[in-house]
Design goal:
138 residues, mainly alpha
Length: 138
């Protein structure tokens, strides 16, 4: 970490994650990623850091890094509806529309949300299935 104390103790994963989130909110992305990544290295099963990293990587279209963390969360059986939504977005951004629709339809059934419907509309629109897309946008 540039100019910051490097944590190496497993017990600091929570503090590292909180600091990482703080830095992310302050737009100090490099420091945030370093802290969050270090937290996941100390404890590969530490879900909060993986979640924050997935959210960041999806927001900047870094699908390779997002998928890395999503795969770990899947392995841990820790994909919440929100993380499954982000997983669907990763598939969408890779052009894997059918998979994105499958994932998102299951999430929408489990946890209805207007944002999910809008996303499904976008995926159908990308597939040029305009009448179906329009139903989701209404």
């Amino acid at each position: 970490m540039t100019g910051r104390t490097k944590y190496t103790c497993h017990e600091y994963r929570e503090e590292m994650t909180l600091l990482g989130e703080l830095f992310m909110n302050r737009k100090e992305v490099e420091a945030a990623i370093e802290l969050l990544q270090a937290a996941t290295e100390l404890d590969p099963g530490w879900l909060p850091a993986h979640k924050l990293l997935v959210e960041h990587y999806i927001s900047v279209n870094d699908i390779a890094h997002a998928t890395e963390h999503l795969d770990e969360l899947k392995r841990l059986g820790a994909l919440t509806p929100h993380l499954r939504y982000l997983n669907a977005r990763a598939h969408y951004q890779r052009g894997e529309y059918k998979t994105a629709i499958e994932i998102m339809s299951a999430v929408e059934t489990e946890l209805p949300n207007p944002e999910h419907l809008h996303f499904l509309g976008l995926v159908y629109f990308a597939q040029e299935s305009y009448p179906t897309a329009q139903r989701y946008f209404e």
